[in-house]
Amino acid sequence: MAQNKVAGPEIERLIQLLAKLPGLGPRSARRAALHLIKKKDQLLAPLSEAMGVAVEKIGICSSCGTVDTTDPCAICSDPKRDSSVLVVVEDVADLWALERASATNAIYHVLGGTLSPLDGVGPEDLNIAKLIERCEGGEIQEVILAINATVEGQTTAHFVMDQLAPLNVNVTKLAHGVPVGGELDYLDEGTLTQALKGRTRF
Amino acid sequence: MAQNKVAGPEIERLIQLLAKLPGLGPRSARRAALHLIKKKDQLLAPLSEAMGVAVEKIGICSSCGTVDTTDPCAICSDPKRDSSVLVVVEDVADLWALERASATNAIYHVLGGTLSPLDGVGPEDLNIAKLIERCEGGEIQEVILAINATVEGQTTAHFVMDQLAPLNVNVTKLAHGVPVGGELDYLDEGTLTQALKGRTRF
Ligand SMILES: [Zn+2]
Ligand SMILES: [Zn+2]
């Protein structure tokens, strides 16, 4: 549609905005736009409305940094959560993944990225000061660093650990090992080595 | 997010609706929702608005069947178009593709699908009656069947041709052959045979 505007600027604009979604290129954005237009009442109108509601209601939790319609978020304000254990994640997507797995009943802290000096991302660009502040409160006993096993993730984990060292909290990290259902043959050597090192009684 | 609603029903609903877009599964819908929420002012709000405008303004052209904000559409009402030649396509996406290619200055007719007895799609479910009506008007000299070279597409093309036979219009179809930039080695035998049959002087 770039060269030849056949369908009015309104459709063109819809396609251009859809193309900015992760996972949609120009071609799939056109397909998505057409699908939406064809399903105007069943999909386009409800989605437009859901987005409007999201614009109005969704914000960042001032305590943990996740996104929600309330502040503090549903997790931070849930009295059934174990607020003595704090799980530190890079991104809201990681928090969602842990929640989908019902992996923990702890509370969270979202860093909002990883340290990356080359990209100009320093400690002040991440949600680290607030993490220290929460840990100084006295209620948190353990901080679990659930940070991706990438170079940037591990650099960030080490930095956070150094910052937490003077405080009275236990800092732990996720176990390495064979993914459940994983085949040894497909795993990298680092994972295999860690899985052997961390072996447990059968 | 299915099992564990952590982020309020508003985000959940946004994810569920996004997952209905072609090209987005549940996982990429979550990523898309998060991306939208993070870019609330730059992307979520404008997209919500663009969709609202689309809901309000976009409809089907009562002449050719394409989608546009005016009826008749921009193409049907363009006096610079050659309205003696009518290009018949299955879907609006095909019309858009031909327009992007600036392949023709003719006008269009969108069938809205192909005949498919097994799926219960008969002639009355397609935009065929209106096509006959347009061709009976006297202005149209040539009907180009730009219908996909699939079994259903070709069945549909034959049906349309039979319907148009009594009328005073020339019915043509797209040339088969080697795609521009295409390598012979990757083409199917049918295409190669058609490309040889339809050879032209160098
Ligand atoms: Zn929170
Ligand atoms: Zn039209």
From TrEMBL, chains A, B:
What domain of life does the native source organism fall in? Bacteria
Supply the PROSITE patterns for this chain.
RECR (PS01300), TOPRIM (PS50880)
Gene3D superfamilies assigned: 3.40.1360.10, 6.10.250.240, RecR Domain 1
Q: Which InterPro entries match?
A: DNA_Rcmb_RecR, Rcmb_RecR, Rcmb_RecR_Znf, TOPRIM_dom, TOPRIM_RecR
Q: Name one GO biological process term.
A: DNA repair
Instruction: Write out the entry's keywords from A to Z.
Output: DNA damage, DNA recombination, DNA repair, Metal-binding, Zinc, Zinc-finger
Name the record gives this protein = Recombination protein RecR
Tell me the organism.
Answer: Roseibium hamelinense
